[in-house]
């Protein structure tokens, strides 16, 4: 599509990205056509070239494209007026000249037929015309001899005369045209090298080209050429042409150097020599995606851009705490337990970008990079710009300033300066830098007036005092980007009378002479961090922002130069008509750039993409319930700082601080819109544990939203339909997710009650006796709809809308093969658990996910700590329900009905129990399993205590997991007890089906079962060590059996996983009985296993 519509791009650029004095009304149309830029409008063509080439240069700086691809993608900055044509990028013209040569050499009919075939491809026509005009231009600049110029003029006149009369094929032999082209390519190559010692070669090439034209191509002799001895094959030349004499040279070689000449020669050489198709240029998928989105967005409905001086000024603010800024050399080279380092990982994920990085730094081998300090610094930045670091965010946001400078240049520069190019202004001389009247100084001033970037590095002062390298990295960022400002909280001890107390200041600094210089210092009434850390960080720094608009950007976001060019258009939305109320928040779509890191990251990327596009699009219009969900949105700064700010920071209740800004704006008669013609990059969590922590945080935040007065007020002030829309697009989604899980429990416990009480048997028996098939079918029916498939449906629709339904279907199938249904079903358990627990007990808290690369194997103990209560215990309970129903249910006797009844539930159970191990790197490597066992044994056998973290001892983890029960209210404890009573259904139902009851249904059997339970507890307390010793003997026998010659890997894996299953069950029972595992058999069992493994490792029998 880009190739077919590229001829319209200059018109689209000049319509939307270049201000016009003519006011045009904004209107919607299904198809947009822009006037093509003619060769006569050199200024418009030059403006398009400046904008397009700056975007392509940014691609090269980011190592998305190579030097060769950059040469094919750029447009000449200022086309030569003598060419009288529009020069397109070479990737559109690649291989057109070789194809046209073959076509002409084999063509025999009339001239008009040949020209018609060439004109059938518009870009082939442009390539032929440009090649011919460039051929004449090179000869005119190179040849200065009078006789030589006359000969060239006669030949050109003869060629153009025959073309005008449509007799060119009749008077010229086209079979020799490839030979002429080969000589011309050699000439252009020599001119490109500019080697003065090859003067004689240039003379010989010109003479050969003349011989080919006059003797091999021309059919009829030309009288004027005969006078110079070049009429036919038998004529003898009077002297050597192009050789010249001692005083009068015939050619100028090397020709005078100019940027325009070098650009033209390089372009002409590529136009002639690139023979392979450029359909895959650029090869990098990210570059192709960005170009496609940028060019397509220019055909969307957006406001016209004003001049930079007349645009709304805006600020960008990024909260930062202690995340990674720039990866250090040791971070990149540090190998994990599998021998995988970050730099090795990135080389495998981005191989083409690594090759482009090596090419940009003129390095052939990786050792050359590590051996040079400057190259190491470049390597650190290269790796950091592919992670979720502050360096990446700052680079992306400072594209706004770069874009404003370029756009201000197009507004303020004269026509001659525009034709000369933006490069001359972007890299001024030292004298121009000092002059405040120079154009470059004016561009800097205009950009600084319209754009401010503040990074709120909350603990930057403490980092400086402690010598943290992050402080040095932040200072280097300020030095590299002069427009960057850093706000932080400074804690100072001051003496007032006899007392020394801490005083807090909000400080704003900038870089000056490689040091930070203080700009403002504002005294605070007390500590800034009273509530949630992130909103407090934003609140203390908002006073340092300027302008009418404010864009909040998170620390793991990115921006692109081509998107920054459209910021003026986006800000004009504040002045557009969007209904009754003016917009107060402009929503912006996101692109998730972490999708290529892993399969889980790809699932999250597709899920988030569908939400920030098709989801928020519908929320904004027609539902009118879009709020603020993240950090790319642009706020009306004056509106919000006079109505409570952009962040609510109350501890707990404002855990999801972003959405409360949208609530506040809507409640105060604001209007939230969404715009998809501009996007910002966004990083997401890439590992299962990171994703689970993030979803737990969001679920807890939604649980707190239910209790907030904001939701209460919205529900009372919305109309009925808008209220329902608000419900289902905020907390209703999590309520529905929790209800799905609750319904599974209710269904299974209900069927279990029917089976254990005998009602199901009686109903089915009566139905069989009466032949009532409908009742049997109703008893055994269930809707089999996999939740994972439903979660993937919005992704399928969005991919289908943007890339076509064939691509969507392919991606959907690949996602299913990569177990996306398992992932989304597992996520359902995370959402429902944390949302339900927050509703019952409160206690929502921020969970740091970490934003690094997941290149390590996660230990079993860590997975157990994270998923024990939310997934493993619930999965085991559901599995027990299904097994008991299989044993005692009447419908379960029919295998088909049972499978139809419980297939989705078994899928849920298997997912909740095994998903963390399926998505764990190296999760089924045997050595990792053994190491996980040792680590889990160490953790489970360690006692807790004061100051012992949860990852060091089981007891500390257990106390941490039960913390919410200590602070919950009376109602929370009541419902916790009620829900826990469901376990007595097992006991009450199963004891009457055991053979020991002998069919007795009296209450005494139930009382006897309680005596048995008490006796079992007493036995476990008294005889637990004896059981442990016997388990050790049994395990030793199993170990000896597994080490014999007939054992196999399958047996070892079976033994281990069986043990893990038993271990989980026993651990759960221990926790229920409040028994510490160090007092039981498993500690001794693990010690025995460790001793056995050490003996085997040392070679003992």
Automatic annotation (TrEMBL):
Assigned keywords, A-Z: Membrane, Transmembrane, Transmembrane helix
MF annotations from Gene Ontology: 1,3-beta-D-glucan synthase activity; glucosyltransferase activity
Family matches, as Pfam families: CALS1 (PF25968), Glucan_synthase (PF02364)
UniProt entry tagged with the keyword tRNA-binding: no
TM region positions: 731-754, 775-796, 808-828, 895-919, 974-991, 1003-1024
GO process annotations (BP): (1->3)-beta-D-glucan biosynthetic process
GO cellular component: 1,3-beta-D-glucan synthase complex; plasma membrane
Membrane among keywords: yes
Sequence ranges assigned to domain Glycosyl transferase in this UniProt record: 281-366, 373-971
Highest rank taxon of the organism: Eukaryota
Callose synthase helical domain mapped to chain residues: 89-274
Name listed for the protein in its UniProt record: Callose synthase 5
Organism the protein comes from: Zea mays
Lineage start: Eukaryota, Viridiplantae, Streptophyta, Embryophyta, Tracheophyta
